[in-house]
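Weekly sync notes, structure subgroup
Attendees: PM, AL, DS (notes)

Item 1: joint prediction request from the bench team. They want all two components modeled as one assembly rather than separately. Inputs as received:
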Amino acid sequence: MNALDNKKNILSIAHITIKGSRIEKIYYLLFFTVVIVLLLTPYFASMSPRQGKQVALDFILSTQSFTGLIIATFVGSGLIARDVDKKVIYSVITKSVSRSQYVIGRFLGIALILLLAIILMSFFGILSYYATLWMFITLGDAPNWYVYWLNAIFLYLKLLIIVAVAFLFSSFSTSTIFPLAVTIGVYIAGASAIKVKSYLETLSGANWGIGFKLLVNSAFYLFPNLSAFDLKAQAAYGLSVNSLNLIFVALYGLLYISVMLFVTVVIFNRRDLI
Amino acid sequence: MKLFLNIIVLITYILLINPVEKFSKSKMTTESTTAVPDVEVVDIFALEFKNLVSDILFFDAITFIGGKKTFRLEMQEGEQLYSLLNASSFLNPYNVDPYYLGQSILTWETKMYDRANILLKRGMQYRNKEWVFPFFIAYNYFYFMNDTLRGAEYMKVAIERPGSPTLVLTTLASRLYYRSGRTEVGILLLKDAEAHEADEGVKKIYRKRIKAMEGVLVIEKAIEVYKNKYSRKPANIDMLIKAGLLKSRPHDPYGGQYYIDKEGNVKSTSDFR
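Output from the run, pasted for the record:
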């Protein structure tokens, strides 16, 4: 099998994934989200006496995150698991498509769907902001759109990490619910681990036993530190972002995704599918 | 038959709407008397949506106040409002709304000045370019809590922040220092402001105030010596001059006459205005 075939196989799996997303009703969800954001942002912003701009952005960015998370967890954990469950997988990997090509192709497919979703939501987010501005003039200075797009990029990376985690658990799971439940668990752990860790480092956290602290610390190094990818406050409140730190975070994300996918491929290759 | 069943279902549904609504409303009033859970716990479970949760908690606070028929708030309601505002600003300390609402309601309405100041100190820490938060704290200490010295200290912080009305705040702070028996600190503050001021007209105002405060300080020091020497308070300034502790009566640039009041504090008939 040459390199060209390899590329072709991956791309065709990615293509199938994107085509399949219509069945997953992702587009309905996206449409629903952008309409909700467009309608509710002015209402939300009007509730704040002094911080209309920030509240508008809080709402826009939080809905983007939330919708992205739903797509990444539900679709990400379902892709491989459902193929195995419905035995579709046999017809795919017997035809000159290797298991690793299948995994990479699936990942590429959902990565493209998520990219499209984030670009769409970001544009509609800006539109919602200006709609709010048009209805309530007192929003203050324009937000920093540069940080807004940075936040979108890091949200994308975060969602890819979640998909990679979902793939890892799908690679050996026999049910479709298990990868979903574990991915949600990993997301919660990844988003809150830093807070629990820093709480334990404070005085009031000092009372906890050493065993619990060890558990939290090991969880912190094992689970992805998703809070680092969250730039919502920076985008809404115009806080400064350190570009060197962001480069580290991006590298960390890419490394985490690569390791997850590698392990997924290794496990999936050894899996007895028959 | 089928149509009949459908109609029955529809009617039951319509009949049920009202009791369900009543129940959820009654739940709201009982639930609203319970405070927000521990802010640290909320912080962990808010995951990456803590800004949004913070906004929602603030909206809760507004609707809580707006939902009341009278504007009077009981002590317990004040605590509840505080817990909402505290949680909101803990989750997102950059949002200024909770601080302003806390300052207006917790001080004037419920007289929970220390609570208002806890919130404002958070605002002062995170919105570290804005002078209004230390100013509000100074105001609360001075006006409500009778702690002029602390008031003066926070006023000094407010003065050092960009965009503050330096002249007004500096004279205010020096007055607070003077009232709390720290006239020297007030003078230092005024001298510092005078040295950094570019406008000649404003410099003049500062110099006038410095001169008045220096007059107070000279008399205050003489009173101290008098008390040590004679073990009693002097009744007026002439006694200080007779005792040789003061060469002459200092001149008040505001056109008044210095005097010693019953408590032994140095004042002027002009009240330095």
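Discussion: The first helix of chain A runs from residue 3 to 20.
Action: AL to compare against the crosslinking data before next sync.
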